[in-house]
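Standup notes
- DV: blocked on the single-chain target, sequence here:
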Amino acid sequence: MAELFPDILTPTTVTERIKRLLDKEFGRAAVAGEIAGLSRPPSGHVYFTLKDSANTLGAVVWKSSRRGGLDSLLENGLEVLAWGKITCYGPRSSYQLICDRLQPRGEGALKRAYELLKKRLEAEGLFREDRKRPLPEFPRRVALLTARQGAALEDFARTAVLRYPGATISLLPVRVQGDGAASDMAEAIASLNAWGGFDVIVLTRGGGSAEDLWAFNEEPLVRAVAASRIPVLAAVGHTRDVSLCEMAADRRAITPTAAAEAVFPDARAAAAEALGMAARMRRAVESQLERNRTGLETLARRAGTSFGRRLDSGRQSLARLREALAGAMRLEARNASLEMARLGSSLRGAMTLAARSASAELARLAGQLRILSPERRISAFRDELDTRDAALAAIRGRLLNPHRTELDRARERLELLSPLAVLARGYSIAIDARGRLIRRSADVEPGDPFSLWLGEGRLAAEVKSTEDGPQAPPPSPAPEVGWLPGAALTAWHAGSSEGIRKQCQDLKAQYPGAAYLRIRIRRGGSGKGSG
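- DV (later): unblocked, structure below
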């Protein structure tokens, strides 16, 4: 068996091969037939068959494709031309047409579909006259929707140029027949509305059969025409029945030439009419002027005989009127004088009363101003500031005086301990070459360099010789501030004054060369001393 049938297939592979063959052979196709077995399940899809005298073909319209007037054409017994894709449905091993566009086929089917859609759209109000707008009398820009090649374009343009030479026409080529023509024209109308700047949209084509002109009856195009914000003129030529898009348009014409005549005014006729109107107006004005001249001459002749009498009578009437007017003016002047005197008296009284009231109010405000015067408040604030300043100075003195005394004592102690003061009194400090203080003769050797630091300046020296032992005190008297060679002498004692006196005598005997000694005594560790 394997040798006889080397390629063993499964239902799935068979279905896939058939599907590929159908896609390659047919692709998108148009199938004519009668709708039968129409089914509308809850899924929203529509299933039916297309049949002819011998066979049937399954077809489906998906829920997503149920727009553009398909629902109005889905009826059993209706002859249609269905566009779509022929494919294979594997679960039932059947092929079917996935339909996305329908068009009635045959005069009877077209008439039936036309009436069904017309009835539904008319119920929605798309054909009402009260929603239609007039076309502008002198349009500046006109958008023309028609085929690029065709007599409709030539007829419309030729008539427009003859009638209105300054017309601006923008051509937007569209398909006006066949599959997708209705959606093409509907999209063009939507685009023109989005762009703006147009005064009129003209949708037109020449004549043809009912099947050729069916695109102008499809629901997408009819709704686009009705929804346009720009006025639309539809002219579908040479049809016995008015197309549905013409019913929805603001105005219709029977041919492209009639459409141009409806959109554009006849400039030459308008000019001739304007010239004729001007001539008629000139003749009417001249005739009226002649009649007025004749009437004036007649009035002048009549007035010549009666003008004198009328003038005398007028003079007498004018004199009487002048006398009456003078009397009335004198009376009015007296009344006005009396009224002014009365008003003046009332005004003086009112002013006096107002002045008194204002004076009292002014006095009251002046008193309040004195009470609230900034100068008084500033003076009070200044007195209070002086008082607080004096109090602050007293507090500052009480707080700072003890510290100032203590500061003076500390300064004196610092002066006693300052090595600079010792140098200023004639002493010096010896520093060896390594920067160390020379305290004993044994710290250096003959020939060693050293520096002497004085009260003012420094001396470089060299050791000639050294001597051991204590050095005698200088012959000069001791400094007046109580400094002895080397450091300050301080005696501490916590006993009686007799013991202090004895210790002072011992110190004087120990340092007989000192003129006097300053001795600081601190009792009981209190920090207070006397010299």
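- Follow-up: The chain has a mean pLDDT of 77.
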